[in-house]
Amino acid sequence: MKYIVRLLVIAVIAGISTGFYYKNIGNEVFGNKCIGFSVLGLAFVLMPTFIIYRFRKSDTSKYIFSPTEKNEELEEFIQNGDGDIQV
Q: Which of 2, 19, 24, 87 satisfies CB 3.0 to 4.6 Å to 34 for a cystine?
């Protein structure tokens, strides 16, 4: 998975570089298409792949809100009445 992410990063950088090269030599239509497809690949392929790679082994249960669990900090905040909102 690590090598797939690295390969995708290199492919996106190469695509964007190629697009700017073609824009500079006068073929703006093809350059814009290269840059556009590279950005789409970055957003819809590389980023989800990277997120899956980084967080597949970590415990994400502490980031998920569960209304059945008690939140001690929230209970203490409500009981103390320090919740005055100042504008």
A: 19
* In contact, 14 and 35? CB cutoff 8 Å: no
Instruction: Number of helices (H) and strands (E) in the chain: give both, helices first.
Output: 4, 0
Domain range annotation of the chain: 2-80
- Checking 47-53 for CB contacts under 8 A at 24+ apart, the result is 49/1, 49/4, 49/5, 49/8, 50/5, 52/1, 53/1, 53/2, 53/4, 53/5
Chain segment 26-43, per-residue pLDDT in tens: 999 999 999 999 999 999
